[in-house]
Amino acid sequence: MKLIIFGATGLVGKQLVQQALFNRHQVKAFGRNVFTTDYLPTGSGGETENLELVQGALFDEGEVYKAIKGCDAVISAIGGSMDGTDKTRTLGMKNIIKQMQKAGVKRIIGIGGLGVLNADENSLLVDKDDYPPEYKAVGFEHKKAFELLNESGLDWTFVCPPNIINEGPTGSYSKNANYPPELNNYKINAGDLAMFILNELQKNEYVKQRVGISN
Known about the structure:
This protein is of the alpha/beta class. The chain has helices at 11-22, 61-68, 88-103, 136-150, 190-203, and strands at 2-6, 26-31, 51-55, 73-76, 107-111, 155-160, 163-165, 174-177, 187-189, 209-214.
């Protein structure tokens, strides 16, 4: 499968690139600092025929379109600040969706946050009064990104993790459609989050759904 990974230099993005290459996918790694990020093991020469580094700007329509064109699927691991002043998550997602529609690419998996999951049948966790105030701003950014996906007509999955830990994959995690998992420890290894996303690209079990996940 030919994949484009946005946010490829971040905590989860780097794990996605490494695991996708291990699974023999063709990978385009898109980001500002891809040429200074160490994706490959020491001694490998830093090159592989299955990895293409794409240095570009997320808000540039031409660069994003060119990166997406010809891919089978898109993974968005874009991030930003927590205080609501940084609109990278929403404006970046808006541009990715627009260029996917233009390029005729339908499958996308994005990373949001726990607050976008259902609290009950009528509301999201982030809309509740008792949702932690320090996570409200970024939660509403994730909510907007989810709404953009939901209105896009694309085959999307929006993974909504709790705290992401800088650790590799264990292969042991709980998941649930649209709600937090029943076994919820409010943390997930970056490696396990990447593992789930790549597995979902193969299985397509959660198309047009949000996913709660936890170690």
